[in-house]
């Protein structure tokens, strides 16, 4: 069941990363001109960050889980700020989906956490 759950997380992250990479290819580098520059850069980098998190989840599970949590905290926080404060996002539906995914990641992290397998920090540090 753990492998299936990791697979689902990876598919979701790859889908999100593909969206950002598509935007950068189709609309040009840093395509989110309606947002402040720092948000434009962050959203543009999410394509690479999402795929890097897939790699980490598959190769170093614990580090991957931490990285996904960091991405999701920043993503939900920045997108909430963009929607509610800056009002540069017109729909809350993607934010709701991201928040749901963030909740799933928080929920499965303690269960998926491994300290005695090849997915632990010992291969990274």
Which helices and strands appear, and what pairs or packs with what?
Layout: H1 2-26, H2 37-59, H3 61-86, H4 93-112
Transmembrane segments: 40-58, 65-83, 95-113
Keywords: Membrane, Transmembrane, Transmembrane helix
Strand count, sense and closure of the main sheet?
none
Overall mean pLDDT stands at: 91
Shape: globular
Separation, N- and C-terminal Cα atoms: 28 Å
Helical coverage, percent range: over 70%
Q: Determine Rg (CA atoms, Å).
A: 15 Å
**Strand-residue fraction?**
under 5%
SSE order in H/E notation?
Answer: HHHH
Unreliable spans are 118-125
How many individual β-strands? Answer: 0
Number of domains: 1
- Given helix and strand content, the structural type is mainly alpha
